[in-house]
C-alpha cells in the first residue's frame, strides 16, 4: 500500500488502534483467516485486492508474507486489523482470533491484541507529543496504566527495544530520534498494547541496511521474550529467509504457495516462488545477470477463471488459461496453487514432494512443456 502513502490509518496518528481487553487462549491457531476476500469499489471498477485468502498464525510464530508490489500483502494485514476503509470492503470470509470470530461488534475488544508497525515511522508517531507521552497514552488505553507506573513502564519498553539512555529519551520528541531509533520507538508503542500478534508491514524498508538488520534482530529477541506471534510483510526474500518460520507467497491477491521457510527455499513448488528466489543476488546458479520475472502483477477485477500468473509463467501450459488453480497439498505442511501439482501430495512424509522431477529450481521449467 505504499504507492499512495496511505499506510497510516486516518485519525490514528500514532498508528495504534484503540480499545482493550484480553481473552484466554485455546488450542486453536491464534489467528485463523479463511476465504478472506477484500475488494475496493472504485469509480471505474471493482478491484479484488485479496481473493479467497486462507492462512493461520500460531502463538509465537513468525508468518512471512512475500510478493511483489500490488500482490495484496498490505490489504491482508489491514483486513486482519479491521482497517479497511471505504471504498474497500471485506466481501466475504472469516477472521478468527483465539477462536472468536472478529465482527464489527467485537473488533474493538481485540484492538490491543493485534498491533501493527508500518514502514515509515514518521507516519506512525505524532510529532507534537513526546515519545513517552505516546507510549503512556497507549498504556492507559490498553493496559489501564497511569501515573508513575505508566512512566516506569514507558522507560522499560524503550529499554526493551534497545533505545539507550531510555530514561532521558522518553521525554524527547520524535524528531530528536534517528530513523532507526524512531522505528524502535514505534515498536515500543505497538508493544504498549501488550499484543499477542504484531503485524509488521515492511517495517525496515525505509531504513538503511545496517539498521534494518538491527531491527530484524530486535523483533527476533522480542518474539523469544514475549512469545509474540509476528506477521511479517516484505517484498524481500532475503528478509523472509532471516525472519519467517512459515511463508505465504502472494500473487495478484492470492496465496500461491505456503510452506515452512526452509522447505520454501529448498524446494519451492510454484513457478512464481521459483522466480522470486532466482532473483535473489547470490542464488543464481550461473551467469552474472539476475533473472527477473518479466511483466508485472495484474490488478484483478473479476473472479479468477484462470491462473493469474499464467502470462508470466515460464512453465505455463494450455490449461493454465482455462482453469483456476486451487491450493493443493504438495507436502505435509506445504501447499501450492499450480496445475503442475494437480496430482497433489502422495502422503510420503519422506520426500514431501509428489513429483521429484518437478521439484525446485529453474531446471524444472522444461517439464511444463509436456502438457502442451
Ligand atoms: N484504497 C485503495 N483503493 C483502491 N485500490 C486499492 C486500495 N488499497 C489497495 N488497493 C489495491 O489492492 C491491491 C493490493 O494492494 P496492497 O497494498 O495490498 O499491495 P502490497 O502487496 O502491499 O504492495 P506493496 O508491496 O506495494 O506495498 C492493489 O491492486 C492496490 O492497487
Ligand atoms: Ni503494502
From TrEMBL:
GO MF, one annotated term: ATP binding
Chief localization: membrane
Pfam family, one: oligo_HPY
Chain positions covered by the region annotation Disordered: 340-372
GO cellular component: plasma membrane
Compartments reported by the entry: Cell membrane
Catalyses which reaction(s): Ni(2+)(out) + ATP + H2O = Ni(2+)(in) + ADP + phosphate + H(+)
EC supergroup of this enzyme: translocase
ABC transporter domain mapped to chain residues: 31-277
PROSITE patterns, A to Z: ABC_TRANSPORTER_1, ABC_TRANSPORTER_2
Protein topology in the membrane: Peripheral membrane protein
UniProt entry keywords in alphabetical sequence: ATP-binding, Cell membrane, Ion transport, Membrane, Nucleotide-binding, Translocase, Transport
Start-end of Low complexity biased regions: 361-372
EC number: 7.2.2.11
Keyword ATP-binding among record annotations: yes
Family annotation (NCBIfam families): oligo_HPY
Name this polypeptide is given: Nickel import system ATP-binding protein NikD
Organism, as annotated: Halobaculum halobium
Taxonomic lineage: Archaea, Methanobacteriati, Methanobacteriota, Stenosarchaea group, Halobacteria
Amino acid at each position: 500500500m505504499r504507492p499512495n502513502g496511505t499506510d497510516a490509518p486516518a485519525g490514528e496518528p500514532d498508528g495504534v488502534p484503540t480499545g482493550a481487553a484480553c481473552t484466554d487462549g485455546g488450542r486453536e491457531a491464534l489467528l485463523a483467516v479463511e476465504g478472506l476476500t477484500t475488494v475496493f469499489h472504485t469509480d471505474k471498477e471493482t478491484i479484488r485486492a485479496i481473493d479467497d485468502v486462507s492462512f493461520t498464525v500460531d502463538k509465537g510464530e513468525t508468518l512471512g508474507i512475500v510478493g511483489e508490489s500490488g500482490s495484496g500483502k498490505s490489504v491482508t494485514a489491514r483486513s486482519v486489523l479491521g482497517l479497511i476503509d471505504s471504498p474497500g470492503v471485506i466481501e466475504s470470509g472469516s477472521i478468527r482470533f483465539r477462536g472468536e470470530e472478529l465482527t464489527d461488534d467485537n473488533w474493538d475488544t481485540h484492538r490491543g491484541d493485534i498491533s501493527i508497525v508500518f514502514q515509515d515511522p514518521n507516519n506512525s508517531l505524532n510529532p507534537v507529543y513526546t515519545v513517552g507521552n505516546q507510549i503512556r497514552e497507549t498504556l492507559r488505553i490498553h493496559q489501564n496504566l497511569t501515573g508513575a507506573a505508566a512512566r516506569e513502564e514507558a522507560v522499560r519498553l524503550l529499554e526493551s527495544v534497545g533505545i539507550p539512555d531510555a530514561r532521558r529519551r522518553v521525554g524527547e520528541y520524535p524528531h530528536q530520534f534517528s530513523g532507526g531509533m524512531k522505528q524502535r520507538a514505534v515498536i515500543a508503542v505497538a508493544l504498549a498494547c501488550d499484543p499477542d500478534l504484531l503485524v509488521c508491514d515492511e517495517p525496515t524498508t525505509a531504513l538503511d541496511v545496517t539498521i534494518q538488520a538491527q531491527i530484524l534482530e530486535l523483533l527476533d529477541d522480542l518474539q523469544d521474550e514475549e512469545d509474540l506471534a509476528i506477521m511479517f510483510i516484505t517484498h524481500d526474500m532475503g528478509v523472509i529467509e532471516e525472519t519467517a518460520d512459515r511463508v505465504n507467497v502472494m500473487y495478484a491477491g492470492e496465496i500461491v504457495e505456503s510452506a515452512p521457510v526452509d522447505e520454501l527455499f529448498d524446494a519451492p513448488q510454484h513457478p512464481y516462488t521459483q522466480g522470486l528466489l532466482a532473483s535473489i543476488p547470490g542464488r543464481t546458479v550461473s551467469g552474472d545477470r539476475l533473472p527477473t520475472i518479466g511483466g508485472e502483477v495484474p490488478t484483478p477485477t473479476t473472479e479468477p477463471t484462470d491462473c493469474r500468473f499464467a502470462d508470466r509463467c515460464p512453465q505455463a501450459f494450455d490449461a493454465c488459461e482455462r482453469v483456476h488453480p486451487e491450493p493443493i497439498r504438495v507436502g505435509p505442511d506445504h501447499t501450492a496453487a499450480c496445475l503442475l501439482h494437480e496430482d497433489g501430495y502422495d502422503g510420503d512424509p519422506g520426500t514431501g514432494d509428489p513429483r521429484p522431477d518437478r521439484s525446485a529450481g529453474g531446471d524444472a521449467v522444461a517439464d511444463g512443456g509436456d502438457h502442451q
